[in-house]
Specification:
- The chain folds into two domains: 155 residues, Rossmann fold, CATH 3.40.50; 125 residues, Hypothetical Protein Tm841, Chain: A,domain 3.
- The protein contains eleven helices and 13 strands.
- It is α/β, with parallel strands linked by helices and 286 residues long.
- The strands form three sheets. It has a six-stranded mixed sheet, with helices on both faces. A four-stranded parallel sheet has the order 2-1-6-7, with helices on both faces.
- Strand 11, helix 10 and strand 12 form a beta-alpha-beta unit.
Length: 286
């Protein structure tokens, strides 16, 4: 019997079957598109096709955090059963979810002094975050404590890498991540940024190249440099550009990667990267 429950955000981009099989609790982010609010629930509130079409047509999308009340309800239920709780969150540099979950943890641990809730800032996104959730599931099932597991994840997050490129500089400009001048000039001369998640969990540009093919080659090169025996599955994400994702996947396989997973990025993070984004997420090392 497990001694703690695991909660995480919809930004992990797992399918529903993962939650059904592992017992991890899914906490959906929200997004507002054309004035209507949706929840990020396995593409059930809006189809991938409709969402990508809206992004392609320039629709403005804003996002919101998972519900605080749901975190509290699930953690308190665990405490009452004599279990501890863990919340594994999207990078605190990109969302307020970590801070909200930390407030829930502090309040509940004061109310239930014999119990513990650990909140882990993954400093990751999407399946980068998901890799850490899978590690937590394994440790929970092995009988490890919530502290042992959280401490381990806070070390392992240093070994998760994210490399990606975006196709629409104007989308980054609309999101406040690029100046209007840089976006216009970059678009005119075909500049594509190469980005990653910093060790602090920030979205950062680490290079720029001319042309989409060169950008794709650059993220593949970076991923292969970090890939090592035992690295496990390499995840390839895309936003409405499956062909580009398949191109990246084939290049990785040709470069020696043993196992890949290609998927459409969920609506919450897609809102900030824009249509045509493609990237690689992986755990590096032995």
């Amino acid at each position: 019997m497990s001694n703690f429950i695991i909660m995480t955000d919809s930004t992990t981009d797992f399918e529903k079957s993962f939650y059904d099989e592992t017992g991890v609790f899914h906490h959906p982010h929200g997004f507002v598109l054309e004035g209507k609010e949706y929840r990020d629930i396995f593409w059930t509130t809006m189809s991938k096709e409709d969402y990508c079409a809206a992004l392609k047509n320039g629709a403005a999308v804003t996002t919101s955090m998972p519900e605080m009340a749901l975190m509290e309800e699930r953690a308190e239920a665990a405490f009452r059963e004599g279990k501890d709780a863990m919340y594994i969150s999207f990078s605190a540099q990109l969302s307020g979810t970590f801070n909200v979950a930390s407030m829930v943890a502090a309040d509940l641990m004061e109310k239930y002094p014999g119990r513990k809730m650990r909140v882990v800032d993954t400093r990751c996104a999407s399946q980068g975050q998901g890799i850490l959730v899978q590690m937590a599931v394994k440790m929970r099932d092995e009988g490890k404590s919530v502290d042992e597991t959280a401490d381990f994840l806070e070390v392992e997050r240093e070994n998760i890498y994210h490399f990606f490129t975006v196709d629409d500089l104007m989308h980054l400009k609309r999101g406040g991540r690029l100046s209007a001048t840089s976006a216009v000039m970059g678009t005119l001369i075909g500049i594509k940024p190469v980005l990653h998640m910093s060790k602090e969990g920030k979205l950062e540009a680490i290079g720029k190249v001319r042309g989409r093919n060169n950008a794709i080659n650059e993220i593949v090169k970076m991923a292969l440099e970090k890939y090592g025996e035992g690295s496990g599955v390499v995840h390839i994400l895309h936003v409405g550009c499956e062909d580009a994702g398949k191109q990246v996947e084939q290049k990785l396989l040709d470069g020696g990667v043993k196992e890949t997973h290609l998927y459409q990025l969920g609506p919450a993070i897609s809102a900030h990267l824009g249509i045509g984004s493609v990237g690689v997420l992986m755990r590096a090392g032995k």
